[in-house]
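Supplementary notes for students who missed Thursday's class. We covered one full example, reproduced here. Read the sequence, then the structure, then the short commentary at the end.
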Amino acid sequence: MAGKDSSADSLSNGAKLVIVKDPGYWIIENVFSFAECDELVASLSAARDRHGRAGTRHLMNNPKVHAAANHPALLGIASRTLGAAAVPYRATLFEKSGLANWLVVWHQDKALPLVSKNSSAEWGPWSHKAGVLYAHAPSWALSRTVALRLHLDASTSENGPLRVIPGSHVHGVLNDKDVFALARTQSKIDCLVGRGGVLAMRPLLIHSSSKAVLNLPRRVLHFEYADSRDLCEGVCLALA
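Structure (token representation):
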């Protein structure tokens, strides 16, 4: 995942078939032990948003979560993916079960938390989420970030796993119409990950998830890393 290496061949009609060597995601099993997962689950029990459907945001101020984000194994995975030293800047808990069950349509992760607003036309629209400023970011900024999804429970075909379209991140920032068009025509992969495993993914990788069909928990700590919190002059990622 460290680059955007691809090659092209010609189809019979003269069109180019792009073969992407970077699928935009990577699964690493057995990164955390079951005991470490249990410790994180216990520390998050009071922080969960019982009213939110999608999860609990802005967990970097939780000491256990902050320590996990800076775990040498996660920093190593993020650094290899980014090709540079990695800095964690955001953590979110996604908790899906029979009681908190939702469908996520095909999309890209395009918003970044920022310390302050800027006037560049590259950024926006702007919004606030739980007091943190967010903006949709340009491709160059998103290419300097990666998400690591630490699975506190096994992700199976029955508890609403993440689905991805391999290689779709190479298309850059897309509007919803183009995202759905690709989702109709491209092959998809269910990302099944064992407990303690990590799914690394590019933010522009098109992804979705279905509802769980069984009442099995699927708790995921979604960490985001960048090669630097200072993306350029006047643009700094917020700690969230």
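Commentary. The two ends are 25 Å apart (CA to CA). Confidence is low (pLDDT under 50) at residues 2-20. If anything here is unclear, bring it to office hours.
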